[in-house]
Amino acid sequence: MKRLIAIKKHKNGCDECGKQIIKGDVYYTKRKVFTEDDKVYAWQYKVCAKCNYYGNHHSERYVKFTDKCIHPEKFIDTEWRYIPGECVKEPDYDYCRLCGAVLF
Fold it and tell me: How far apart are alpha carbons 15 and 31 in whole angstroms?
């Protein structure tokens, strides 16, 4: 993505959070131009600095969170599997929906 500084107030704001981009704000843009059926089409995606930061560092923050997850009871779910040779399911294991850890 290309880093830009707004010269004027943009009519459309951030595509992720909807925040208005005003003069002097830093924003990031990605422009895609392609041709189809001998016609040229362009698409521009703008995000504010905050959304760009959260998008780039999401995986790092998630890894740190999985180490500290305490597996609250309301986020524990049970995975079910079929009994071989029958049409009935039985509980297989419990897992945390927040971090994905398997709990026995």
Answer: 13
